[in-house]
C-alpha cells in the first residue's frame, strides 16, 4: 500500500513537473549563455601560396590571443589552438605584411571578441625551387678498436627537397640525426631520420633513411711524396706540370708495409684531345686491398704537342 502511494505521488501532476524541469533547463542555458568568459589561447598562422611559389621561413607561426564572449561559445575553444590561414595570391611576391584578424579564421563566430597580441605577420614569397641533395650519415663515437668504418651509405642516397629559392640554393647536402656507433663490432644497417634542426623551412620527399655501416680491419695511412705521372690514351708527345704528384694510401698494417711507390700508378687521361694546353684531373690506382685516400694536386696542367710519339 505505501508503495502504491509513493508511485502515485511521483506521477501526480506529471505535466507540471515536466514543465518545471524544462523551465529549469532553459534558465540554466540562458545563464550559461549570458555569462561572459575570458581565456587566453594560441593562434597558429599558416601561409598558403600559389603553385610555383613558397614562403621563406614562414610556413607556420603562432601568436598569443585572448578570447572573450559567452561561456557556451568560449568554453568549447578553451585549451584548443586556433588556426588562421593567409592565402597569398599569385601576383604578390617579395616582402609582404599582413594584419591578422578574425577574417583569416575559418567559420569564426562574431559573438566572440578576439584580441591578437602582436597581430602583424611579415612574409617573404619567392619562386619555388626543387632539387636533389645527397644524404650524409652523421656518425657519433668510435667502433671497436680493431675495426674501422669502411663505408657508411644511406638509402636513399639522395632526397628531393623543395622550398623558397634562396633557402634551397644554399643547401649542398642533408645530414642524418647522429648515429651512435660506439663499440660497434660488426657491420650493421639501421634506420635514421634527416636532421631538421639546422634546415630552413623546406619540404622533404623522404624524412627517413636506412644507413648501412660496413666495418673492416683498422687501416693506417701512408703518404708517397713522388709518384710519376703518366699521360694515357694519346699518341702525341705531351708533358705534365708538375710531372709527379703525392699519393696517400690506407691499408691494414701488414699490407701497407709492403707497398712502395713503384706499385702505385698516377695518370691523366688525354684521350681525344688535340694539341694545346689543358687542366686535367689526376687519378691513381693501387694494389688490391689498398685504398687511395688523397692525391695532391688533384689536377695538373698538360700540354699536348703537334708531334706523334716515336714507336
Shape: elongated
User: In sequence order, what are the helices and strands, one letter per element?
Assistant: HHEEEHEEEEEEEHEEEEEEEEHEEEEE
Biggest sheet descriptor? 6 strands, mixed
SS content category? mainly beta
Determine the strand fraction and express it as a percent band.
over 45%
Q: What is the terminal-to-terminal distance?
A: 135 Å
Helix percentage: 10-25%
- Strand element count: 23
Q: Count of helices? A: 5
Spans of at least 5 consecutive residues whose pLDDT stays below 50 are: none
The averaged pLDDT comes out at 89
- Rg: 37 Å
How are the elements arranged and paired?
Blueprint: H1 2-11, H2 14-34, E1 36-48, E2 53-56, E3 60-70, H3 71-74, E4 82-87, E5 94-99, E6 113-116, E7 120-136, E8 139-140, E9 147-155, E10 158-164, H4 165-169, E11 174-175, E12 179-180, E13 188-193, E14 203-204, E15 208-217, E16 220-232, E17 236-241, E18 244-251, H5 253-256, E19 265-269, E20 276-281, E21 283-285, E22 291-296, E23 299-308
Jot down its keywords.
single chain, 311 residues, mainly beta, six-stranded mixed beta sheet, five-stranded mixed beta sheet, 23 strands, 14% helix
Structure summary:
Helix content is 14%, strand content 51%. The strands form 6 sheets. Strands 2, 5, 7, 10, 11 and 14 form a 6-stranded mixed beta sheet that branches. Strands 21-19-16-18-22 form a 5-stranded mixed beta sheet. The protein has a 4-stranded mixed beta sheet with strand order 4-1-3-6. The mean pLDDT is 89.
Amino acid at each position: 500500500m505505501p508503495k502504491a502511494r509513493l508511485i502515485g505521488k511521483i506521477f501526480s501532476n506529471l505535466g507540471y513537473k515536466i514543465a518545471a524541469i524544462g523551465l529549469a533547463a532553459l534558465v540554466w542555458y540562458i545563464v550559461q549563455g549570458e555569462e561572459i568568459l575570458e581565456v587566453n589561447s594560441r593562434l597558429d598562422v599558416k601561409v598558403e601560396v600559389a603553385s610555383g611559389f613558397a614562403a621563406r621561413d614562414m610556413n607556420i607561426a603562432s601568436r598569443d590571443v585572448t578570447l572573450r564572449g559567452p561561456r557556451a561559445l568560449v568554453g568549447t575553444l578553451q585549451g584548443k589552438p586556433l588556426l588562421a590561414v593567409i592565402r597569398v595570391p599569385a601576383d604578390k611576391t617579395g616582402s609582404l605584411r599582413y594584419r591578422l584578424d578574425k577574417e583569416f579564421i575559418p567559420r569564426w563566430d562574431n559573438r566572440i571578441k578576439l584580441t591578437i597580441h602582436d597581430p602583424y605577420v611579415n612574409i617573404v614569397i619567392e619562386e619555388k625551387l626543387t632539387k636533389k641533395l645527397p644524404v650524409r650519415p652523421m656518425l657519433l663515437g668510435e667502433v671497436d678498436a680493431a675495426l674501422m668504418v669502411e663505408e657508411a651509405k644511406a638509402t636513399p642516397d639522395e632526397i628531393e627537397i623543395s622550398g623558397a629559392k634562396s633557402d634551397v640554393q644554399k643547401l649542398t647536402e642533408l645530414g642524418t640525426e647522429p648515429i651512435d656507433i660506439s663499440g660497434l663490432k660488426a657491420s650493421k644497417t639501421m634506420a635514421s631520420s634527416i636532421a631538421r634542426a639546422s634546415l630552413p623551412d623546406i619540404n622533404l620527399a623522404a624524412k627517413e633513411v636506412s644507413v648501412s655501416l660496413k666495418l673492416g680491419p683498422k687501416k693506417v695511412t701512408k703518404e708517397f711524396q713522388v709518384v710519376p705521372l703518366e699521360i694515357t690514351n694519346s699518341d702525341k708527345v705531351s708533358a705534365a706540370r708538375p710531372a709527379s704528384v703525392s699519393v696517400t694510401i690506407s691499408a691494414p698494417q701488414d699490407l701497407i708495409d709492403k707497398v712502395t711507390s713503384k706499385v702505385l700508378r698516377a695518370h691523366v687521361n688525354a684521350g681525344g684531345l688535340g694539341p694545346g694546353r689543358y687542366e686535367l684531373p689526376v687519378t691513381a690506382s693501387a694494389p688490391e686491398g689498398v685504398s687511395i685516400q688523397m692525391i695532391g694536386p688533384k689536377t695538373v696542367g698538360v700540354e699536348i704537342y703537334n708531334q706523334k710519339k716515336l714507336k
